[in-house]
Amino acid sequence: MELLGLDFFQVTILAVLQGATEFLPISSSGHLILPSLIFAWNDQGLTFDIAVHVGTLFAVLVYFRDDLQRLVFALTLSVFQRKHSEDSKLAWMLLAATIPAGLSGLLFATQVEQYGRSLILIGITSIVFGLLLFVSDRSGSKQLTLADMNWKTALLIGFSQVLALIPGTSRSGVTMTAALFCNLDRAAAARFSFLLAIPIIAASGLLRGIQLLQTDTESVEWLVLLYAIFISAVVAYLCIHYFLQLIERIGFLPFVIYRVLLGIALILLAL
Questions:
Q1: How far apart are CA 176 and CA 8, in angstroms?
Q2: Is residue 2, in this structure, part of any structural domain at all?
Q3: Burial readout 178-204 (b: 16 or more C-beta within 10 A, e: otherwise)
Q4: pTM of structure
Q5: What is the rounded average pLDDT of the residues 26-50?
Q6: DSSP 3-state percent helix, strand, coil across the chain (nearest 5)
Q7: Do residues 157 and 16 touch, judged by C-beta distance below 8 A?
Q8: Is residue 193 situated within a structural domain?
Q9: In sequence order, which residues have a C-beta less than 8 Å from that of residue 102 and are 6 or more positions away?
Q10: Total domains present in the chain
Q11: Domain carrying residue 36
Q12: With pLDDT > 70 as the criterion, what percentage of the chain qualifies?
């Protein structure tokens, strides 16, 4: 089976890449660009990007379903009954932290897609932001939990998310880096980053879906897309689960090493 020139193996690899890298601090956008640049695969196109992002959205919604129900309930009470709680505070901070990246995405996404698809750029950003992640993980007290967060911290993390528009940066990586610099512990940094991903992925998928509806959809291979959604969702769910289970024990050093080695390899390949 094929989708826009991709065979079954290529569809599987790209779906696994999206699922594995969306929530790990190693850049999903950078990895999805790599096969077409390194192996000369056909660009997977807008339709496929929508599908695998829907898969990762399903994964994070299912994994954090209890948290989301609690946050939505608390937010509703805050709006309509003026009853405020730690959960409603967290919900409002997540919404506020989403605004900078949301606006930047609307304004600059086209320019970034046009000028940011280069191996050297991805290599440099992979190294630079990997080293920043290392510094943030090794500095400060790292004792604050989500209950300790304030508006300054939430907005700082939100503004850091804007940098994720640059391929190779990693949305989850840069938000976790900012959270660690604000002395959140590793688990809190990861959980806030994952929750913050939900509105961004949903908004991105909605905008891309609108673009898709404005084009010809008659030739879309729906079974292939459903397969890609399923694979990316399963892999993303497993990544979230095991990342949260292991991060307090292993820290971020393995991801830093991976990013630096990947960045060096990409720069050498480009030269």
A1: 34
A2: no
A3: bbbbbbbbbbbbbbbbbbbbbbbbbeb
A4: 0.88
A5: 75
A6: 80, 0, 20
A7: no
A8: yes
A9: 199, 200, 203
A10: 1
A11: 8-270
A12: 87
